[in-house]
Automatic annotation (TrEMBL):
Keywords: Repeat, Signal, TPR repeat
Keyword Repeat among UniProt keywords: yes
Keyword Cell membrane attached: no
TPR repeats: 99-132
InterPro entries hit by this protein: TPR-like_helical_dom_sf, TPR_rpt, Ycf3
Protein name: Uncharacterized protein
Organism of provenance: Citreimonas salinaria
Amino acid sequence: MKRIVFALVLMGSPALADGCPAAPDHEAAISDLLARIQAAPDEMTARPLNGALWELWLDAPDEPSQAMLDQGMRARSSFDYLNALERFDALVDYCPFYAEGYNQRAFIKFLREDYAAALPDLDRTLEIEPRHVGALSGRALTLMALGRAEEGQAALRAALALNPWLAERVLLVPAPGRDL
């Protein structure tokens, strides 16, 4: 029976859409990592801490959701964006309160240059996980790609407030009357 349920989830069965458990609670670890990143003296010190953040965000609620996430990421790595989008759609349907499903789906839309479609997924990611630095920086890049530079800069500043070592920091433009 477990194999049948697992197979249905992997195929994206809408019948199981409400079966996803809550995402693991990593709030304390995220707080600790963000504090350590902010205190880091340089980018090289911050880099492994940022990697540890991603490990937490990529920790899906259960085995089926982890499989969907991993399948989507493998498809993305192979530039199979259509399959990746299908996997992330299934993940979001199955686990509507798991931030990373939306974030990864937004990234696929961004890579496909469908910026307007990426933005709602980034916003949903941030509703669920307001300190998701990847979604904040992705939102900044998406807004900039949409020609909404001022909003993009504000999103980038929010991301950099959490992680001042993001590679996207080179895109920060001084606001009138403000230093970087």
